[in-house]
């Protein structure tokens, strides 16, 4: 007896959900990410001086207005790769943004 369409849909959805975190990291360059350093920014505040105040993965960081190392973001969103320092502060490894941001 063949599985019902509902069972197949549930299995397929489970597969997609379980694969999503792995797929999200596929485009980050290896020099930026060790499979847990990079994520989309949860909050983005463009400050009056042109800098960005970002939060991602529970950490906050300011990217200066003239930051010269922005990389292109394939989904147009801002992403950052952060490493937590022993002091508890965050260190920016890589930053990505879409055109016009």
Task: Describe the structure in your own words.
The protein has one helix at 5-24, and strands spanning 38-40, 43-46, 52-56, 59-63, 71-72, 79-84, 90-97. The protein has 101 residues and is an alpha+beta fold. A hairpin with a 2-residue loop joins strand 3 (52-56) and strand 4. The protein is globular. The protein starts with a helix and ends with a strand.
Keywords:
alpha+beta; single chain; 101 residues; four-stranded mixed beta sheet; three-stranded antiparallel beta sheet; 1 helix
Quickly describe the structure:
By secondary structure, the protein is an alpha+beta fold. The chain has one helix at residues 5-24, and strands at 38-40, 43-46, 52-56, 59-63, 71-72, 79-84, 90-97. It is globular and about 30 Å long.
Please identify the structural class as seen in this structure. Answer: alpha+beta
Helix-strand sequence: HEEEEEEE
How many beta-strand runs? 7
Number of domains: 1
Terminal-residue CA separation: 54 Å
Question: Which of globular, elongated, flat, extended, rod-shaped describes the shape?
Answer: globular
The fraction of residues in strands falls at 25-35%
Please estimate the helix content: 10-25%
Q: Which consecutive residue ranges, at least 5 long each, have pLDDT under 50?
A: 5-23
Largest sheet: 4 strands, mixed
Q: List the quaternary state of the chains.
A: single chain
Using only CA atoms, what is the Rg?
18 Å
Strand order of the largest sheet: 1-6-7-5
Give the overall pLDDT as a whole number: 81
